[in-house]
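Entry for the shared binder. Reason: the reviewer on the internal report wants the predicted structure included alongside the sequence.
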Amino acid sequence: MSSANRCLKARRRLRAQLERFLTFLAAEKNASLHTLSNYRREIKECLAFLEQQGVQDWPGVDRFVLRRYLAWLNSRSYVKASIARRLSELRSFGRFLVRENVVETNPFRAVSSPKVPKRLPAPLSVPDTVALLNAPDPSTSLGLRDRAILDVLYSGGLRVSELAGLNLSNIDRRRNELLVWGKGAKERIALLGRPAIASLSRYVEAGRPHLLPPEGRGQGRAVEALFLNRLGGRLTTRSVMSILHKYSRAAGIERRVTPHTLRHTFATHLLDGGADLRSVQELLGHALLATTQIYTHVSQSRARAVYLRSHPLAGSSRSKETPPGSE
């Protein structure tokens, strides 16, 4: 067999193993189409690099070639978080290869991920949150829908994928609850406040019927969807992001606001109001308490800002002044 044929055969074998991995993610991990698309594109990019380096099979993947791969990513100006994500995807692929007895050890464990600086989430203030929630026009069907979306995201702390996946049957208006399917197809209950349930009810009763497709169209799952687009189909996560962008501008909020911003805001406002960390963990659907603990740092940062602004001896500019009442 010629060298070119051997390379082609090796390339096909690696691509076939990648496709089996993606099938595994879809079937057993319930990965979203967006996740599968990212994994396919970015792992293929790595495999193409390895092929250019003369690697034809997994024994050729060592720390030296992986370091060259990381250097190549750096040369293309990828940020550390992006590089760390790619390595995480590759390690997940490597674990699958071990499970399938393709390799004995995970080849992508040979290098360490770059240290990514932790960025604290930036929640909205209460006035900005109220302005955002009040931005949609309640006299239109789309306005009723959009107000319900904003209320559910903020009141329930939902991920955007969880919101887009909601069906009518997931609402329990008697108990003010939503049945939510979170990451990894894990089921949880999201609680809603009375204003959120009220706006959701107004949308379901007065807004959603006008968005339903004409007779004979949109049969099946599209009609089950809670939040519908203009054509009567299920609203996508991308559309929800566009809705947030539209109303944050209308509310006069200059910073970028995403669905995850409202999830951060939900958690931070709960902690600021005295909620305990375990309860917030349960409401967010976090598997690990450590994931939730980042919000305590946010609340501490806010508390520190208030302290420095308010205490007579906290700021350097006032430290030399005589404290009130000490004369």
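Summary line for the report: The beta strands are 171-172, 177-181, 187-191.
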